[in-house]
Each structure stands twice: as structure tokens, then as C-alpha cells.
Amino acid sequence: MKSVSRLMMMLVAIVVLALPFSVAAAQTNTRSVTWTEDQINNSYRVSNPWRRSVTDVSVDLLPGQAVISSTQTYRRGTYQVEAVYEPRVSNGRIYWTLTSASANGEPASQDLINQINASISASWRNYVRQQAGTGRVQSIVITGTDITVTYSGR
């Protein structure tokens, strides 16, 4: 009986001593990843668009938004396209919203902007997941020179 009580006391002591370590391990690790405007513009996706009709792609970061410019050549003509995107974080995910777009200086209709917004909802989130691993996004900050994503890892 005495050995059983000693064993129980030893187990209780081990659990009590291990408790601070388990609480520390249970906390999520907060990490940040930063991409500069130069890194983005030199990335393979920007410097080598998958469509041959799209050339001269560049990304210009402004506070709170990203402006993507490109030249798009089709049978009917060549267009200088500019699109302005703003990010937001919702439920641990990044969502990009096209706020304005133009081709050769002519603004896109709101109906076209709505269609584009419907099709891009997951693309950037997938890119970040591949680059930074799994986790939940806490914030995204765009300055004039870089994008910083802060997320909690699992």
C-alpha cells in the first residue's frame, strides 16, 4: 500500500512539473513572412507569366494595396492593363478584392470586377500556404516596399 501511494505521489509530481511545459507547447507559434516588392517582381510567376499573351507584368506596392500592371496581346489588339487589389483577413485566411481595373485607361465595369473577385478568392491563400506552411493568418500589412503576413503556426 505504501508503494502504491509513493507511485501515485510520483505520478502527481511528474504531471505537476510537466504542466508548464505542456502549456508552453500548446501555445501557437506566431511567425511573420515578408516579401519585398523586388522579390515579388523577380519571382517566377511575375517574370514568366503562364499565358504567352501576358507580358511586362509588374507589381507596385502601395500602402494597403497592390497594383498589378501588364501588357496583354490578343488578336483584336494590345491592352495596357492595370488592376488594384486590397487584402483583408477573415477567419484566418487572406482574401484579395479587386477594387479597380482598367484596360488602355478605360475602367472595367462593376459586373466584370465582381466576376474577377469571385474567381480569385483562394489563389493567394494557396500561394502563402505553399510558401509559409500551415497556420492561421492574423494580419497582412502592405507598405510601399513590402508585404508582411503574420500567422500562427500549428
Structural class: alpha+beta
Tell me about the largest β-sheet: 5 strands, antiparallel
Global Rg: 24 Å
Beginning-to-end CA distance, first to last residue: 44 Å
Helix fraction?
A: 25-40%
Tally of helical runs: 5
Strand content: 35-45%
Can you walk through the features of this model?
The protein has 154 residues and is α+β, with helices and mostly antiparallel strands. 36% of the residues lie in helices and 45% in strands. It has helices at 2-26, 37-42, 44-47, 110-119, 123-132, and strands spanning 29-36, 54-62, 65-74, 77-90, 93-103, 106-107, 136-142, 146-153. The strands form two sheets. The protein has a five-stranded antiparallel sheet with strand order 2-3-4-5-6. A three-stranded antiparallel sheet has the order 1-8-7. A hairpin with a 2-residue loop joins strand 2 (54-62) and strand 3 (65-74). The chain starts with a helix and ends with a strand. Residues 1-13 and 15-26 have low confidence and may be disordered.
